Amino acid sequence: LRKNAMVAIHHELNRLAGPGPSNWISQVRRRSSLLSSRSEEEGYNEEEMSYLKQGEDALQKAISILSEQDGWTTETVAANGDKVLSKVLPDVGKVFKLEVMLEQHPDDLYKELVGNMEQMGEWNPNVKEVKILQKIGQDTMITHEVSAETPGNVVGPRDFVSVRCAKRRGSTCFLAGMSTQHPKMPEQRGVVRAENGPTCIVMKPCTEDPNKTKFTWLLSIDLKGWIPKTIINKVLAQT
């Protein structure tokens, strides 16, 4: 009875909410349900289908996490209102959520983060290099990222191999991802292969000013190595 009541309440809240997180979450879920049939029609092979599914899974899992508004703990709030929240999930561990308002149009941010992804190291001090290993269709790609060295090299070099899923649904843009493996990029000598995911960036026009962007970033990351997770999590919140 409790489960049925919760489902009924959830549907009613979705109906009343109108445009908002519930609205774009349902849009993405409806569109993503067509993935399998569409992929078969477009002639993807088994390996490509696997990457497509991983990307969709990362997006759906990230959306599910972001849609749950309860249980978040405030980690830090900047003077300008930028806020970092966190939550511990049983099957994922600690995840972080950054919420900011950016003075940029969502299209410009999407072009920079997706279209110019390999140039990220030019402006992001935490990234040394991003390379696209493979593109599958318009929405999915596999990337190799190398993190920049920390001062004093306290945290040694880390790299990531990720499958990324980029979606546009109306005026809302998504960039989700999670760790994967790829034959072009086995583990490198002298570099710790870290893991991430699910991660997701959501870019939505500000209601009051469509030239500004409500920017939400979900981060889940395991840097591996010898440093205790308590220290890593504290540093991640600040970073």
CATH class: Alpha Beta
Question: For the record, what is the CATH homologous superfamily label?
Answer: START domain
Beta-strand percentage range: 25-35%
In helices, the fraction of residues equals 25-40%
Main features:
12 strands; alpha+beta; ten-stranded mixed beta sheet; Alpha-D-Glucose-1,6-Bisphosphate, Chain A, domain 4; 32% helix; 6 helices
Write up what this structure looks like:
Its main location: mitochondrion. GO terms for molecular function: cholesterol binding; cholesterol transfer activity. Keywords: Lipid transport, Lipid-binding, Mitochondrion, Steroidogenesis, Transport. It is found in: Mitochondrion. This is START domain-containing protein 1. With 239 residues, the chain is α+β, with helices and mostly antiparallel strands. The protein has one domain: START domain (Alpha-D-Glucose-1,6-Bisphosphate, Chain A, domain 4, 2-Layer Sandwich), CATH 3.30.530. The chain is built from six helices and twelve strands. Strands 1, 2, 3, 4, 5, 6, 7, 8, 10 and 11 form a ten-stranded mixed sheet that branches. It has a two-stranded antiparallel sheet with strand order 9-12.
What can be said about this structure in brief?
The chain has helices spanning 2-17, 21-32, 35-41, 46-67, 106-115, 229-238; strands spanning 73-77, 83-89, 93-102, 127-136, 140-147, 158-169, 172-179, 192-193, 195-196, 199-205, 213-219, 221-222. With 239 residues, it is α+β, with helices and mostly antiparallel strands.
